[in-house]
UniProtKB/TrEMBL annotation:
Residue numbers spanned by region Disordered: 369-393
Keywords from the UniProt entry: Oxidoreductase
Stretches assigned to the FAD dependent oxidoreductase domain: 6-345
PANTHER family tied to this protein: FAD-DEPENDENT OXIDOREDUCTASE DOMAIN-CONTAINING PROTEIN 1 (PTHR13847:SF287), SARCOSINE DEHYDROGENASE-RELATED (PTHR13847)
Keyword Oxidoreductase annotated: yes
A Pfam family that the UniProt record links to this protein: DAO
Descriptive protein name: FAD-binding oxidoreductase
Family annotation (InterPro entries): FAD-dep_OxRdtase, FAD/NAD-bd_sf
Length: 393
């Protein structure tokens, strides 16, 4: 017997959970996840930072529009806690600071600092090496688990259903609705939402849609002890102006990343030893942080469309196939605004007013921007090999 829904959402990371929560208010929603638990891929592996000057102008608009959601919560745990964020430069990198500060979507949100002011915030930075920074006016640590669980709770409260260990392996449209095979379940719905993260193009091909050129890129995170005798808890996140590395306090430790962007196929990512060593080396070129041992490291996939803007909207050729992919390195901090936007487009109500006023357009998000005009949709692929619960942190 086939279970009937209005919307099948594939992928229970932050993207799938967010849009499912919104749509469950007036749709029968089912959220399908291939893993035994949700958030085992990109969502569970992020650096959990909210930086509203990160990414391109569209990402900044989505992040700035999400800030209210994160701050307005009056329950525990809070979605965000204040965390400064400074973008640092050496002498030969000052042009990068000037270029960033001159952008209209950045200028109102930053304050310029000189080398002494930077070291007053992070005393372990070497004098004479870091000479300037831009300090963000509104940056935060995000409680990713609290945000993700909030969306799932909201969805369940509205009658939505989450099925884990349910890899979607077939997705067929018969002219009226989709039949979706997920593990031992068969579901019917007129709308399928592609929130499959790194697997977005894989799912699209399975449904007979033209892929949009999503590229998963591996990023590594490393946890080390803070320097002895130094209180690092209040340090801001320190990001290299050219994004070659960053470090930030993390639950009594220091999180370092080489800000790697290694293109890979979708898979359960794991850290490469060399990237771990590069993370430590790059941080140690600017800061006096001795590393006796790496306590823990992990990697995750940040998945980008070719223009680094998310892909959101109905496929123009495959009926009822809706894209919500390509969140790159910004999927948590943009989730509130992107979920609302996606749900509005699913309901065919256009871009929400506040985002439209901020300059976000349907055309810049549409999957059609990467699909050959007039080209036929492809034959559905039926060779998907699910991970089947092999993923681990
Ligand atoms: C190291 C690192 C640091 C980051 N730091 C930040 C940060 O500081 N701030 C920020 O905002 N963002 C950050 N990001 C980015 C952020 O984590 C992602 O943009 C976001 O999590 C993407 O969410 P998603 O739901 O699209 O993808 P995912 O969380 O990967 O979810 C997609 C889900 O789809 C499931 N799936 C795929 N195919 C199928 C199928 N066929 N059937 C069923 N299920 C399927 C997968 O199992 C997966 O659970 C970081 C990412 C990494 C890796």
């Amino acid at each position: 017997m086939q279970a009937q829904y209005d919307v099948v959402v594939v992928g229970a990371g932050i993207a799938g959970a967010g849009v499912a929560a919104d749509l469950s208010r007036d749709h029968r929603v089912v959220l399908l996840e291939q893993e035994p638990q949700p958030a085992m891929h990109a969502t569970g592996r992020s650096a959990a930072l909210f930086s509203e000057i990160y990414g391109n102008a569209c990402i900044r608009a989505l992040s700035q529009a999400s800030r209210g959601f994160f701050l307005d919560r009056d329950e525990e745990p809070a979605f965000v806690t204040p965390r400064g964020c400074i973008h640092i430069a050496r002498q030969d990198e000052l042009a990068g600071i000037e270029a960033l500060a001159s952008e209209p979507s950045v200028a109102p949100f930053v304050t310029a600092l000189n080398g002494d002011e930077v070291r007053a915030l992070v005393p372990v930075l070497f004098p004479g090496v870091v000479v300037a920074a831009l300090s963000e006016n509104h940056s935060y640590d995000l409680d990713v688990d609290a945000i993700h669980q909030h969306f799932l709770r909201q969805m369940r409260g509205n009658g939505g259903v989450l099925h884990c260990s349910s890899p979607v392996t077939r997705c067929m449209h018969d002219g009226r609705a989709w039949t979706v095979h997920a593990g031992d379940r068969v579901l019917r719905a007129p709308i399928v939402i592609n929130a499959a993260g790194a697997w977005g193009d894989v799912l699209a091909k399975m449904a007979g849609a033209q892929p949009v050129g999503l590229q998963p890129k591996r990023r590594t995170a490393v946890i080390v002890d803070p320097p002895q005798g130094v209180d690092s808890a209040k340090w801001p996140a320190v990001i290299h102006i050219g994004e070659k590395f960053y470090f930030k306090p993390e639950a009594g430790k220091i999180l370092m990343s080489p800000a790697d962007e290694t293109p890979v196929d979708p898979h359960d990512a794991y850290p490469d030893e060399l990237d771990v060593a590069i993370a430590v080396d790059r941080v140690q070129q600017v800061a006096d942080i001795a590393v006796r041992r790496v306590e823990h490291s992990w990697a995750g996939l940040r998945t980008f469309a070719p223009d680094k803007t998310p892909v959101v909207g109905y496929d123009s050729r495959v009926p009822g196939f809706f894209w919500l992919t390509g969140q790159g390195g910004y999927g948590i901090q943009t989730a509130p605004a992107l979920s609302e936007l996606a749900a509005s487009l699913v309901r065919r109500r256009g871009i929400p007013d506040a985002l439209a006023a901020a300059g976000v357009t349907q055309a810049e998000l549409a999957p059609a921007r990467f699909q050959a005009p007039g080209g036929a949709s492809s034959q559905p692929e039926t060779s998907y090999e699910p991970i089947n619960g092999q993923a681990s942190r």
